[in-house]
Structures are given as structure tokens and as C-alpha cells.
Amino acid sequence: MEVFQVGGSVRDELLGFESQDRDWVVVNSSPEEMEKKGFKPIGKDFPVFLHPKTNEEYALARTERKSGVGYKGFEFYFDSDVTLEEDLKRRDFTINSIAKDQNGRLIDPYNGIEDLEKKIFRHTSPAFAEDPLRVLRFARFKSYEQLHEFKLDKETAVFFKKIINANELQNLSPERVWMETKKALQNKYSDEFFKSVIEYQIINPWFKNLKRVSCDGELPELKWCDLQRVNDFKLFELMPIPNSFMATQKIFKQILDLVESKNIKYKLRLIEKINVHRNYEILLGIKRYKCLQEHKYYLEQILESVMAINFSSLKKFHASEVSDKKQLLYHEALNGIL
Fold first, then answer.
1. Which residues form the signal peptide (predicted)?
2. pLDDT for 21 beyond 90
3. Which of 24, 117, 196, 243 could tie 139 with a disulfide, CB 3.0–4.6 Å?
4. Can you give the residue ranges of every domain in the chain?
């Protein structure tokens, strides 16, 4: 039984970045031996185990063969005779096909270290074209601080076209596409993900209507809203968008209406709907948008004035009267600002 650290964690260490997660491959072992040593099995399609102490994932070395459509259409072969080099060969890019043994020795059969130095995404083998998820993973890798300057190898770009022309992207699940998108939104260079989607035509069907890129904001929800804004709020219709993203978008659109409207009564109704006290932190992020800088002082005045309102007097009124009484409080607090 031999254990090797593999994948992104090895890549990131070589680039001088600390990796959040480490993956391990076990060679010359079996599911029975892994369980005997205390590893907990979690894999459904192939043997993956959790380390009894660190809880990190350990997978038996395996090979794979395309047997269907999409990124799940594979048959896996795992046995004690599968070598480390065979396991590394099935991985997407050479820079992710580097391993390190328990003595710190690097195993690099596909010249991934050289590609790291050249800042190149190059496919490990022609099997790259069998998995449509890999083009989306490439776009997500571009959002990483340590990888955003890397370029796509010309030969690998040919495989991209093959996947796209075969309409393989439509076989991805909405949940998985959103997972990759959300991860990109959590990274420093989120805009590079969407620029790559446009540049390499990773559009249909998931990113239909994506024409422009702007990912202003620190939180993923804020970046998502800004991207929606520059694309007329017509993106991601096929994806399972979480409630927090939808709620932030709703507030953002209300803020846009607030600064554009000239009707004071409508503005007061909007402010009530926005619920400044409950959504104050989100609103602080929204008012920092570059697209709202000309309205920043105006919004700050509104937020400060509303936060200073004492709503305790509303307790004595019947529920049917509360909204109108709130409007009076808003009007008094915002008189001269709106």
C-alpha cells in the first residue's frame, strides 16, 4: 500500500500557495484493506475513503472508460494493479497530474511542472475530450489567484471545440454547473471565469445571454448581482439559484429603482420593502458598487436616517395600521433627502 498526495494541492504548493484541501491516491490496496485500517468508505461510483483522523479523502488508484454521455458517463476500474501513472493520466490538466510521495519526492510523468513554469493549461491525455465538465473546470481555475494568468494550450483548445460542437455541455446537470459557477464567484478573479465562458464559447445552454462581464463586490451574491445587471438580469435561468442570491438581487433591483425614480411616494414604499434594518449589511455592500458611486452619498443619507428611526411606537397600533404609520415615520426621517 502506497499513498501519494495528488492534484490541486500539489500544484498550489509548487506555486507557493497554501491549499485548503488535499487529495490522496492509494496504490496497491483494496477496499477491504482500507476499511481494515479504519478508513470510512464514502464513494458511490468508485472507492473513496475518509481518513480516520484527518477526515481527508483517499481514493484508490483507478482508470476510467467513457460509456455514456455527460461527466457521469464513465465506467471505472480499480484494482491493486492500477499504477500511479495510470491514475494521473485520467486527470484533466498536466498541472493537476503531479503527485508527491510521503518523502516529498515529486512524480511528474506528464511534465506538469514544466507547464506550471510556462503558465499553461494543457490536457494530460486525449481522454480530456470525453468529459464536458472539464471545460467548465478550466473556466473556474481561471478565477483562482494563482492561475488567472495561465493560458490554454492550442492543442487543448481543439478538444474544447470538440466538446462544445458535440453539445456535450447540455448533458451537465444544472446543480453541477451552478456549483462550478458559485465556486468561481467565491474566488478573487471571478471575472476571469465569465470571460473564459465567452472567449471559448462555453455558452449554451447554461450561460445564454452572457454578453458582458462585471463582478463588482466582495460577496458571491454581490458579484452575481453585478453580472446580472450588465446583462439585463437575463442570466442563469436554467440553474438552481439559492434563495440568498435571489434575495440580494431583489434588494439590488429595488435600490436601482430607488435612485432612478422621481416619485417620493414610490420611493417610500420601496424603502419599506427593502427593510433596511434587516438587510443593512447587504445594503452596505451594494452602495459600494462602482455603478452607484454617483448616488453613494444619497444612499448613505437614506440608510443612516432609516437606521435612526425608532419603530417601538408601532407596537400600539393594529397590524392593519402599521404600514401606513411606518410610511409616516419614513417620511419624517427622510424629509428633505428624497
1. none
2. no
3. 196
4. 1-111, 132-239, 244-334
pLDDT at position 70 is 45
Q: Please provide the size of the chain in residues.
A: 338
| Predicted TM-score (pTM) above 0.70 | yes
Query: Which residue is associated with the grid cell 492550442?
Result: 154
Q: How far apart are the first and last CA of the chain?
A: 72
At 76, the pLDDT band (50, 70, 90 cuts) reads low
Closest CA to 94 of 117, 111, 118, 78: 111
d(CA 182, CA 195): 15
What is the third-level CATH fold of 1-111? Beta Polymerase; domain 2 (3.30.460)
Alpha helices in 66-111 (DSSP H): 84-89
Whether the Cβ atoms of residue 56 and residue 20 lie closer than 8 Å to each other: no
- For 271, the grid coordinates are 424603502
Q: Distance between CA atoms of 271 and 333, rounded to whole angstroms?
A: 12
Report how far apart, in Å, the C-alpha atoms of 183 and of each of 58, 122, 269 are.
22, 22, 36
Strongest mean pLDDT among 17-21, 77-81, 290-294: 290-294
